[in-house]
Amino acid sequence: LLFACFVVIAVLIASLATFIIMAYNYKSFRRNQILNEPSAFANMENIADSGHTLSVTIGNDIRKKVMEGSKIYLLSLDALMHCRLTAIEEANAKAIAMKEAVKFGRKQLFVNFAHVGDDVMDRSQYFIRATDYLADFCNSLNQISSLTHTHILNNHKGLTVDQNHDLTDLVDEVTSFLNLLNYVHKERRFGQIPDLIRRQNLLLNYIEELRLKELRRIKHGEGHTRMNALLMEILAETKNIMLFSINILKSHRDIMVSGD
């Protein structure tokens, strides 16, 4: 009987080890998959040689990263609201991979400037500006996913009912805004930028209302200390995402206009 118990325990340990290895390998695969996706910023010379319109290709690259960022934001906060460790691990891996991909693309951008024509060099400021804003956008996403991952991993206490309600509304508003922004990117309807800025300002005011509400909760001892601190960080980084996303769209517009 004792031997049978040892066998069962050994099988369970082996199964657990196999699961951990498979999960690690999957996360590594997804991270490398995103990191190794071809970036227009890193292949400017090849694009020019193949006859593609450089501005359009880079514009599409920007749009895809904003769309991926929207998914990471939704996945991160949904994981927080439902305490899903697997989901936040996936979101965090994607955020890290996208951050590294943009960082690598920015480095290659400067390398490839030595191999492009004068017409591309004349527009280099727009490409550099776009990568800078994308890097800031990715940093904010990574900050949210990383802090949320740490919170869930350490089994810290969750949201109160009121906090969950506020966060649900915030996620709906932010993802709706980013989806509309992505549509403007895709269709190149840059004339809608003033309307988006007005909507952005409404969202920024809403984020400030949530921040003040959270400060009142802290003052009255409501909620849990670590969760309250995490929510304040999420609100601050969400505000940054709103600001960076519009700047990315403006950079996309400038790239397209300069390429005409």
Briefly summarize what is shown:
The protein has helices spanning 2-35, 44-50, 54-82, 85-112, 118-122, 124-153, 161-187, 193-219, 225-259. By secondary structure, it is an all-alpha fold.
Give a verbal description of the structure.
There is one protein chain. The chain is mostly helical and 260 residues long. 85% of the residues lie in helices and 0% in strands. The chain is built from nine helices and no strands. The protein has helices at 2-35, 44-50, 54-82, 85-112, 118-122, 124-153, 161-187, 193-219, 225-259. α7 runs antiparallel to α8 (193-219). It starts with a helix and ends with a helix. The model is unreliable at 19-24 and 47-52 (pLDDT under 50).
Strand content: under 5%
Largest sheet: none
User: Which percent bin holds the helix content?
Assistant: over 70%
Number of helices: 9
Mean model confidence by pLDDT:
82
* Order of H and E elements: HHHHHHHHH
* Head-to-tail CA distance between termini: 80 Å
Q: Tell me how many strands there are.
A: 0
Radius of gyration: 22 Å
